[in-house]
Amino acid sequence: MKQTPLLPEDPYQKAMARFWIRFGENKAIVLQSIRFGVLLTEGKEQQEATLIALQNLKYLEEELRGKKFFGGEKIGLVDLALGWLAYYLEIYEEVSGAKLLNPVH
């Protein structure tokens, strides 16, 4: 049975994978801006938090552009670490009323 490594063998690609995992874990950047900024605020504060969340999601989207997974054609640790985010975005939208997803993308 062929195994798929969780991290790329190439040192640069491995460093980039670790960067994106850390980016996703960083509470001040992605997760907290969505969770607390969008869900627990209203009005102008929610709009500002939504813009921050959208900018951070854009970084992830740009990294994925044209690829099936963060690592290309094979699932890896970054996909496993951040994969849950796409599932919860619809829930965040429903609970907060804020628009985070663009059906065109």
Automatic annotation (TrEMBL):
Assigned GO CC terms: cytoplasm
Matching Gene3D superfamilies: 1.20.1050.10
UniProt cross-references to Pfam families, sorted A to Z: GST_C (PF00043)
GO molecular function, one term: glutathione transferase activity
Every GST C-terminal domain range: 10-105
Stored InterPro entries: Glutathione-S-Trfase_C-like (IPR010987), Glutathione-S-Trfase_C_sf (IPR036282), GST_C (IPR004046), GST_C_Tau (IPR045074), Omega/Tau-like (IPR045073)
Stretch forming the signal peptide: none
BP terms from Gene Ontology: glutathione metabolic process
PANTHER family reported for this sequence: GLUTATHIONE S-TRANSFERASE, GST, SUPERFAMILY, GST DOMAIN CONTAINING, GLUTATHIONE TRANSFERASE
Protein name: GST C-terminal domain-containing protein
Source organism of this protein record: Hevea brasiliensis (Para rubber tree)
Organism ancestry: Eukaryota, Viridiplantae, Streptophyta, Embryophyta, Tracheophyta
